[in-house]
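tokens incoming
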């Protein structure tokens, strides 16, 4: 009965192999500017697909409820130590399955149901796990929101302070998914302190920059810091929780497991350890510096072609192009660019009522930079985006030649091999694909 155990994917399940191979091909043939996307190293893929997928433990190193193993404890401790070193934290929890679960653990540790939290409005660039309706964070807690100044697009700390005085939240959340500027964490901490609130900073989109000192580190100011490990940090899919207070660390650990999760994905913990190790190398310093240069080159390229950026610049791995002056909404432009194999996403800008009719185009450079692209390539990308935007505004088809330019760039900056051998005939393998009846 060991028949299944030793066959490669290509032989055992050509259908799944074919779909993975096609996804790999899609990734290589596309300029990915969705800001959450990045490409991980082969080393992380190896760790993430390792025998640790079979390892069941529960609890934390030295205090497992289930199946203690010295090797696995050492591995988790290594991931923790590297995360602490990377961000200058005293405590790290490397087990969250996602950024959302890291945030849920923080809320579970810090709040009681019904408590008030103050966070950034989804329409101003916040994340849905910070108290949006229809999520656990929004349904279990009373969420109040601050936005951005409608003219500058910037967070107004005085406004945050007056909202905090008005609503007396138990927790203030700083950090966002579509805010292109640096955040004054010290000021947020002062506001939290004044109203007796705790401060949670979610640095998901800037964690790589924080690790290398290219974005302010929230650890000296926040009670708790959460992040995803993918996106700009270029690690595997998952979350991370950091803090400096021993008592708080114990509450956060308990909130995550057994509060929210059972066994950790040890293969992903191993991949996180590898990612943190990579981020501690000088090469990652150079990567972060290039990410910032690329984001600014992309913004400058857009500006040179008459397309404004929200706030007029960027301190993060993406820019938010402001499309209202161009007379187009973001969603149709996202679709037009998608057809050219350029990925990006629509985000609201001040004055937009919702995501569907948003006028912001979020363009991230973390993935392009991983491929080795620099300022010159980002300027080419700015040209493609600007031309596609103008064509759309004029009711014309996307510019001729843009798809060729994308193809040529992708070929010049190849990705690592997919790692799964496609079956001899993709078409045959996929012909058996069925959806539910
Ligand atoms: C992406 C993101 C998350 C959520 O990450 P998931 O892994 O998708 O749950 C949380 N917070 C912010 C600010 C994000 O941008």
């Amino acid at each position: 009965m060991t028949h299944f155990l030793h066959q490669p994917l290509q032989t055992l399940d050509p259908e799944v192999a074919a779909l993975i191979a096609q996804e790999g091909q899609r990734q290589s043939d596309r300029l990915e500017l969705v800001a959450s996307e990045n490409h991980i190293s082969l080393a992380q893929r190896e760790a993430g697909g390792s025998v640790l997928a079979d390892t069941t433990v529960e609890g934390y190193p030295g205090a497992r409820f289930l199946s203690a193993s010295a090797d696995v404890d050492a591995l988790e401790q290594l991931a923790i130590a590297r995360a602490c070193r990377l961000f200058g934290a005293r405590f790290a929890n490397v087990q969250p399955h996602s950024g959302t679960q890291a945030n849920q653990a923080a809320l579970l540790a810090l709040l009681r149901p019904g408590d008030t939290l103050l966070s950034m409005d989804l329409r101003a660039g916040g994340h849905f796990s910070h108290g949006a309706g229809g999520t656990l964070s929004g349904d279990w807690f009373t969420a109040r929101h601050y936005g951005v100044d409608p003219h500058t697009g910037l967070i107004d700390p005085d406004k945050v302070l007056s909202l905090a005085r008005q609503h007396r939240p138990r927790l203030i959340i700083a950090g966002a998914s579509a805010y292109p500027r640096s955040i004054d964490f010290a000021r947020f901490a002062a506001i939290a302190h004044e109203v007796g609130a705790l401060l949670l900073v979610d640095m998901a989109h800037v964690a790589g920059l924080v690790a290398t000192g290219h974005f302010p580190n929230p650890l000296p100011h926040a009670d708790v810091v959460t992040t995803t490990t993918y996106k700009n940090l270029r690690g595997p899919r998952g979350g991370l929780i950091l803090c400096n207070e021993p008592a708080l660390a114990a509450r956060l650990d308990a909130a995550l497991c057994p509060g929210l999760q059972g066994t950790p994905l040890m293969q992903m913990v191993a991949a996180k350890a590898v990612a943190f190790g990579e981020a501690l190398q000088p090469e990652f310093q150079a990567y972060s510096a290039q990410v910032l240069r690329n984001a600014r080159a992309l913004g400058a390229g857009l500006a040179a072609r008459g397309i404004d950026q929200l706030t007029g610049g960027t301190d993060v791995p993406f820019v938010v192009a402001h499309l209202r002056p161009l007379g187009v909404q973001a969603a149709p432009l996202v679709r037009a660019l998608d057809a050219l194999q350029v990925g990006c996403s629509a985000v609201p800008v001040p004055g937009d009522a919702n995501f569907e009719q948003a006028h912001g185009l979020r363009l991230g450079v973390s993935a392009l930079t991983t491929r080795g692209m620099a300022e010159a390539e980002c300027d080419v990308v700015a040209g493609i985006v600007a031309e596609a935007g103008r064509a759309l505004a004029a009711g014309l088809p996307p510019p001729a030649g843009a798809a060729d330019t994308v193809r040529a760039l992708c070929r010049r900056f190849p990705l690592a091999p997919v790692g799964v051998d496609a079956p001899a005939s993709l078409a045959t393998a996929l012909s058996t694909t069925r959806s539910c009846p």
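note: The chain has two domains: 51-279, 285-412.
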